[in-house]
What does this fold into?
Amino acid sequence: MRPPLPPLETRSERFDLSVGTAAEFLRSAWPELREVRFEVAGMPAASDEDGIPRWQVFAAEKRIVLYRLPIERLNRLHRNDDLHRRMMVESCVFRAAAEYLDRDPWDLGPDRFRFL
It folds into this structure.
């Protein structure tokens, strides 16, 4: 008998997990985000004056949409491994939430980046 195979995990599943984990952290830290829906879509419907958007904020609808394909394929990583890909996704979630809150992304998790 051969050993069981590990469960398969797709890129889109890893992406969804990274978005969900970052969104839950932000919701727990910022009451203004508790009712906001974080959604994942493949591609935006159209580009804008800045190019292809990585996310879109719909403040009136309390909704943030992150676009998986532009985030995964158009961002440049200095090291292309699982950790750095996850960090890229999380940084996009933080930047989208910061845009929603009209704050600087570094303000969203100040204690997370303070080392003693």
In short: The first strand starts at residue 37 and ends at 41. The mean pLDDT is 88. The CA atoms of residues 17 and 86 lie 9 Å apart. The chain is about 40% helix and 10% strand.
